[in-house]
Amino acid sequence: PTTIELVFSRSVFLDGDAILDFISALCKKSEEELSNQDDPRIFSLQKIVEVADVNMNRIKFIWSRIWSILRDHLNKVGLHRNIRIALYAIDSIKQLARKFLAKAEIASFHFQKDFLQPFEEIYKGVGSNDKEDIK
Asked: Which of 47, 74, 85, 90 could bond to 80 as cystine, CB 3.0-4.6 Å?
């Protein structure tokens, strides 16, 4: 792996506060990249998904705080005016949800509901004509 790849894959070794700062900064960078109307970039969005995946085994308290930050960002990106970007975000949420819900130790219905909440928010936020595109 390249040095830059190691930054993301080794985020699992950050302490609780550091991972929250890292996720927040990554979401902010992703917002900047996606705000370019002519040429939105998804590098940071891709890395957000990778970091979420490798950090999914953290204790519930930390993971729920990580998810809160990610959920807010993915909700916004899922409503991006560029349909390719929006669909990428929705697919990313779907992939993370599958991995998370497949975990045997997940017993908290409330947290499962919280994890699936972005789908509801995105669905509410899109126009009726666009809903067929995201199904």
From this structure: 85
Q: List C-alpha distances in Å: 54 to 23, 62, 82.
A: 12, 13, 28
- Angstrom distances, CA of residue 13 to CA of 10, 46, 55, 119: 6, 20, 9, 30
Q: Give 107's Cβ-side CA count (13 Å radius).
A: 1
Supply 34's token pair: 């996606």
CA dist 90 and 2 (Å) reads 28
Say if residues 63 and 20 touch (Cβ distance below 8 Å).
Answer: no
Under the banding of pLDDT at 50, 70 and 90, the label for residue 102 is: confident
Residue 37 and residue 27: Cα distance in Å, rounded?
Answer: 18
Name the E strands within the chain: none
